[in-house]
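User: I want to check something. If I give you two sequences, will you return the structure for each one separately, not as a complex?

Assistant: Yes, each is folded on its own. Here is the first sequence with its structure:
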Amino acid sequence: MKTFHTMVRRGMLLVGLLLGGAVTASAEPNVVKVGPDHYTGTWLEIGRTPMFLTDGCVAGYSTYRKGKTPSDVLVEDGCRVDTPKGRLKTINGTGKIQDFGSTNAKMRVRYPLLITFNYWVLYKAPDKSWFISANPSMTDLWIYSRTVPSKAKLQRMVKKASELGYDVRKLEFPPAR
């Protein structure tokens, strides 16, 4: 007897084929090597994929601190509600660098209520002032910087996200400060 999951997968494949599309597994994106200084200090959220968790959030940031072990990272994500001077909202999580010692670019963060996100560093600027991260399926993408970028620098950031294969039309750019 076929399992329910096998039947569902076959049904989805059949629907995809009937609609004229091919059902393929997407390849995971490449990551870049980052040093230990990457997971320290505060990064400003410059661009992101919209999601219900960030609705109404502007002036977003992530602050990283060292955890108990070298591969642990304490994470505080925060934003202001509606305006850069609005009420501060924060959530704390515990990150674990999944590829510690090789690229240090794959981090899984666990937040309260069993919320878990995978953040993979796909690009880091040569001067280390900004980076792009995404989840492994590239459905969610974030652009972070140590400072608010100029318009020209923001254009370079967005262009780089596009070069990495992300549909940048999906990004939103809430006020950073």
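And separately, the second sequence with its own structure:
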Amino acid sequence: MAFEFACKYVHLLPDEKTISEVLAAVWSHDVIEDCRQNYTDVKNVLGENVAELVYALTNEKGKNRKERANDKYYEGIRKTPFGDYVKICDRLENAYYSKLHNESLLSVYRKEHDHFKKQLWKVSNQEMFEELEMVLQVR
């Protein structure tokens, strides 16, 4: 689903090279975190720019959500070109899925939303945030 959101908002990306790399990163954004792959594995298959995006979206170590998605995590996303775009696609997917299948997790995303928005909002991704807030029913 994250890939579907990336395609839906592809008009926000500046050029074909960026589109290709960002779509590849959205498709593979969890492979380091969830699939026992590492930065070098991603780089060897998808290139350095995609590996940088995937690495930026890999959570920190931590005992809970707050520790895993700490300020350092969000700083890495912001510093990586289009990291915010990839992360918002991921959050849109998670919010939609949770709305359909896991109301308690949806509640977590609602509680986190102000912090998430504070970390990643900018004018260029306002359209994505509008959809996210519609799904989360916040504002």
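Because they were folded independently, the notes below concern the second chain alone. The chain has a mean pLDDT of 97. DSSP finds ten helices and no strands in the chain.
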